[in-house]
C-alpha cells in the first residue's frame, strides 16, 4: 500500500468510513498520521525541510474542533506526530524533519572541533565527536541535517556532564542550534 493509499485509508477512517468506534477531529494538521476504527492504519514517512515559516502580519487561528465520537481524539493543531484510536488502529509518523545547516553553524562546529583535543577522550566526548562529524557530513552532502541530530548535539553540550559546555565554541554551537530549532 502506498503512503497516499494509507493516508486515504486513515482519512476515511477518521471520517467514520470504517464504522464503529468513534473518530478523530483535527483542527489543523501539517504532517503526521491519523487512524480510527477497527483495523484502520495511517502512516507518514515524508521528509520535511525546515519548519513552515509563518507569514508576517498574518494570524491563522486554529479552526474550531468538533468533539469526536466515543473513543475518539481531539487535536486542536498538529504539526507532525501521530494519533490513533479504536481497535487495531495504528498511526505511525516516521517522518524526518530536516533543517538547513547555515554557514555560521558549520563555522562554530569547526571551532569546537579544534577545541576538543584539549579534553580527555571519554565515551561522552566520542559521542559528541561522532554527532559533529555526522552534522558536517550531512551539511556537505545535502546542506541540511536531521532535527534530532541537532537536538542531540545541543543536549551533549548543555547537560553539564562535561566541561566542554563551558567553552565559548560550545556555547556558540548550542546557541546556533537553539535558533534553528525554535
Quick one: how many beta strands?
Answer: 9
Mean pLDDT: 77
Protein structure class? alpha/beta
How many helices in DSSP terms?
5
Largest sheet: 3 strands, mixed
Task: Provide a descriptive summary of the structure in words.
The model is unreliable at 1-20 (pLDDT under 50). This protein has helices at residues 3-14, 103-115, 123-142, 147-158, 168-181, and strands at residues 24-26, 33-36, 41-44, 47-49, 73-75, 82-85, 90-93, 96-100, 144-146. With 182 residues, it is an alpha/beta fold. Helices cover 39% and strands 18% of the residues. The strands form four sheets. It has a three-stranded mixed sheet with strand order 4-8-9. A two-stranded parallel sheet has the order 1-5. Strands 2-6 form a two-stranded parallel sheet. Helix 2 (103-115) packs antiparallel against helix 5 (168-181) and helix 3 runs antiparallel to helix 4 (147-158).
Topology:
Elements: H1 3-14, E1 24-26, E2 33-36, E3 41-44, E4 47-49, E5 73-75, E6 82-85, E7 90-93, E8 96-100, H2 103-115, H3 123-142, E9 144-146, H4 147-158, H5 168-181
Parallel strand pairs: 1-5, 2-6, 3-7, 4-8
Antiparallel strand pairs: 8-9
Helix pairs in contact: 2-5, 3-4, 4-5
Amino acid at each position: 500500500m502506498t503512503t497516499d493509499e494509507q493516508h486515504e485509508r486513515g482519512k476515511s477512517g477518521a471520517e467514520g468510513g470504517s464504522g464503529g468506534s468513534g473518530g478523530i477531529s483535527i483542527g489543523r494538521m501539517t504532517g503526521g498520521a491519523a487512524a480510527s476504527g477497527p483495523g484502520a492504519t495511517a502512516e507518514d514517512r515524508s521528509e520535511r525541510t525546515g519548519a513552515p515559516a509563518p507569514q508576517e502580519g498574518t494570524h491563522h487561528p486554529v479552526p474550531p474542533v468538533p468533539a469526536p465520537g466515543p473513543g475518539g481524539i481531539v487535536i486542536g493543531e498538529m504539526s507532525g506526530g501521530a494519533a490513533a484510536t479504536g481497535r487495531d488502529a495504528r498511526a505511525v509518523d516516521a517522518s524526518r524533519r530536516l533543517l538547513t545547516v547555515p554557514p555560521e553553524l558549520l563555522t562554530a562546529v569547526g571551532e569546537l572541533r579544534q577545541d576538543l583535543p584539549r579534553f580527555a577522550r571519554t565515551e561522552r566526548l566520542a559521542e559528541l565527536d561522532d554527532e559533529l562529524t555526522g552534522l558536517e557530513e550531512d551539511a556537505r552532502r545535502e546542506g541540511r541535517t536531521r532535527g534530532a541530530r541537532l537536538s542531540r548535539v545541543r543536549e551533549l553540550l548543555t547537560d553539564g556532564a562535561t566541561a566542554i559546555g563551558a567553552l565559548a565554541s560550545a556555547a556558540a554551537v548550542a546557541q546556533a542550534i537553539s535558533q534553528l530549532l525554535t
